[in-house]
Amino acid sequence: MGKFLIRMSAFLRKEIIEVLRQPRLILALVFGPFLILLLFGLGYTNQARAVRTLFVVQNQDSPLAAQINEYAPTISPQLVYQGMTADLEGARRMLRNNQIDMLVVVPENASETIRNNEQASFEIYHNEIDPAQISYIEYLGQVYVQEVNRRVLSQAAEEGQSDAASVQEEVSAARQNAAAMKAALQAGNVGEARSQQRQMRGNISSLALAVGASAGLLNGVEQNMGASSNQPNSAGSILSLLDSVQNNPSNTNEVVEKDNYNAEIADLDKQEKELGDLESQLAEFRSISPNVLTRPFTSKVYGISEFQFTPMAFFTPGVIVLLLQHITITVAALSIVRERRAGMMELFRVSPVTSGQTMIGKYLSYLFFGALIAVILSLLLYYGLGVPMLGSWANFAIVAFLLLFASLGIGFFISLVAGTESQAVQFAMIALLLSVFFSGFILDLRYLAGPVRIVSWLLPATYGTVLLQDIMLRGNNLNLTLIGGLAAIGVVMFLVSWLLMRRKMATG
Amino acid sequence: MVAATPNATPAVTVSARGLTKQFGNDYAVQDLNFQIQQGKIIGFIGPSGCGKTTTVRLMTGIYRPTAGEVSVFGLAPDRFDSRLRERMGYMPQLFVLYPDLSIMENMNFAASLYGMKIFGRGKRIRSLLEFVELDEHRNKLARQISGGMQRRLALASSLIHNPELIFLDEPTAGIDPILRRKFWDQFQELKASGRTMFITTQYVNEAAYCDYVGVMAEGRLLMMETPEGLRRRAFNGDVVDLTTEQPLGWSEIGQLQQLPFVRRTGGYQTGSNALRLIVEEASTAIPDIINWTNEHNIAVKSVEEYLPPFDDVFVSIVEAARAANTENQTASGLTGEEVKRG
């Protein structure tokens, strides 16, 4: 056992001395990422990009042109209004020359198109090549069109409400007609009752025309919200009252001569009461802002974490993981291939040292080296840049250890299969590229198709990034499934590397 | 210098029988048969690519033989255990230690490889560094020292664990004659302390320092002899130079050739009256030659044994082997390549 440890220590000591003999390398490895993150944190504004937008309107005297002039400058801070033109080709040239970012072609004869039961379409052009920026332009275009639609609806609702104001007198008159009709029936004056009934019908019809459209719009909104039409003061209640008033027998049935009008009087009592209710509910309906009517919902977003996340904070766990993985893979990848090329394996084969002792010694030395970098870098980021650590440092250490262990396995595997040092470096760079694209460092894993995610979950960086984000930014405990996956990669790669090393050290 | 470990190992330390190594269709070494006795210096001499390094690698277990067998301390290399490996030291042909470690750190690395206890090894390292005259440079990085110093460091690290059997693959290659001489002095010291050494070299004259010399060419061991035996076998006897006041006539030379102890005459040496004779045994032939010159009234300046340089010995042996090979080839009707492939 003593000799086992001594032989293993040969590599432990040698690798550590070799690494520590290159202080500039350590400084670059630690301070390089720190400075990059610092610069990123200082330079990244996290503001939505402003898009210079030009509108093309063929008929600049049209009402739509006037509306664009009014709407466009205030629709969104991201839409920077660059004016209006009738020259489509000139506008396209400006787009190509990067003088504007977005070109909106306003539909000609929009009202005619709508009257023909078709949607009028705004055409939006851009000159972007980045899919993310293309999506952003599409999103901004949708925001613009939604805003235009909303303003049109809002105007309609506003007009509906002002119509409702104009019929307030008609409701009141209809109530008076109902009261006079009841008095005429009580007095047995059929002629007067019929006269009052005719006037009441006229007032109720006007009322239905004026209120029906805007109350119907609001009723649609309320039904989407799950509100009942029986709920007092709702649009459904107004429509229901209107319906009841219109269908009241005192309104629909002709007054005929007979001995007793008790039933008609009772109907008129009800009519009078419902018209009163309608009057008060209409008043309330008018008080609702058209803005609320046409855009009844808004949203407020709250993160459950108390920490205000910055882009720098978000990227920090990924940077730590990527850096640790890349350093360990690279140094391990170069380690054995360099010794093989230099002929050291001959010495090892003749000496009593075993492949197991060699591998354990090398693992321990690079674990120590990686841990040193992880500690220094993490403390610099935590104290220097104020990156959050909402979880436990112990959990952080466990993840970092397993990440280094798994990455070393991959590095030693590369070192044992690569023929030259440059090959080893190339393989290490491929591992880095894979990690940048598939570990969730830049692209969220949920954007990747199922089979491609298998590649992601073969990379230690994927586990490391998810785990460290959970620990550092969410304050979560260890996800045992992910920890198990990372440990499994480490163990498998250790065994594979060990077996390959045994073959290399065996008699040839 | 550290004393050799007393042991009860057999007198024969290494034994090879029909040892052959093939890479693809090419023979690196073919049908080697030899034994190495304990406490001796064995030198393998031959040109670059003749199979010396392959032979070392077969003995140390780096290569597995294609045919034949080799045993070290009675065991085949594929059965070496760590204890047996601790009894062996190996210095590869090229410097393979770590350039970014200091001399002391490289020595410590080698000591750890062989399982030497960390505490107390410093004294041994220092004594070895003194032995190879590197002690005062011990804190220098290996990449900062000269090629000769690197060879000495490699030698010291191969001796760190006090091995009984030491394989040194061209330890003197590429170093100056003074340092080469120092190395051989050190090897003699090691031999005196009981070590067995197997040394390969391209410098034919270094054969003189060995107890036994194996001559290799084209993957074959042409012969293995003591240095003196090598000379004798190369020239089919001892060489004696007879220098007279006047050149001998043809009849006198003919008479000399008829003498029973003279095998042949080698002709006059350029620019002198020295006639070179190949005799059975120089020590007995010289008095007889003097008697013969007295009998024939020939004025003699000197009669002395000539020791041909090992370069000549080596060339003579290799040429004889090639000639024999060509004869065999002609006799069997095979091409040279076919003969080589066996």
Your description of this structure?
- The complex is a heterodimer of chains A (508) and B (342).
- The longest helix of chain A is centred in the N-terminal third of the chain and has 36 residues, at 131-166.
- In chain A, α7 runs antiparallel to α11, α13 runs antiparallel to α17 and α16 (393-417) runs antiparallel to α19 (460-474).
- Chain A contains 20 helices and 4 strands.
- The model of chain A has no long low-confidence stretch (mean pLDDT 87).
- Chain A is mostly helical.
- In chain A, strands 2-1-3-4 form a 4-stranded mixed sheet, sandwiched between helices.
- Chain B is an alpha/beta fold and 342 residues long.
- Chain B is built from 11 helices and 13 strands.
- Chain B has helices at residues 52-60, 82-86, 103-113, 121-131, 147-159, 177-192, 227-235, 250-258, 282-295, 310-332, 336-341; strands at 12-23, 26-37, 41-45, 67-72, 88-91, 165-169, 196-201, 212-217, 220-225, 238-244, 262-268, 274-279, 300-306.
- Chain B has a 6-stranded mixed sheet, with helices on both faces.
- In chain B, α3 runs parallel beside α5 (147-159).
- The radius of gyration of chain B is 24 Å and the shape is elongated.
- In chain B, 40% of the residues are buried.
Low-confidence stretches of chain B: 1-10, 335-342
Mean pLDDT of chain B: 87
From the N-terminal CA to the C-terminal CA of chain A, the straight-line distance is 28 Å
Question: Kindly, what is the distance between the CA atoms of the first and last residues of chain B, rounded to a whole number of angstroms?
Answer: 47 Å
Mean pLDDT of chain A: 87
Question: What percentage of residues of chain B falls in helices of 4 or more residues?
Answer: 25-40%
| Major sheet strand order of chain B | 5-6-7-3-8-9
Oligomerization status of the protein chains: heterodimer
Tell me the total number of β-strands of chain A: 4
In helices, the fraction of residues of chain A equals over 70%
Order of helices and strands of chain B: EEEHEHEHHHEHEEEHEHEEHEHH
Structural class of chain A: mainly alpha
Computed CA radius of gyration of chain A, to the nearest angstrom: 39 Å
Question: Biggest interface, and residues per chain?
Answer: A-B, 25 and 31 residues
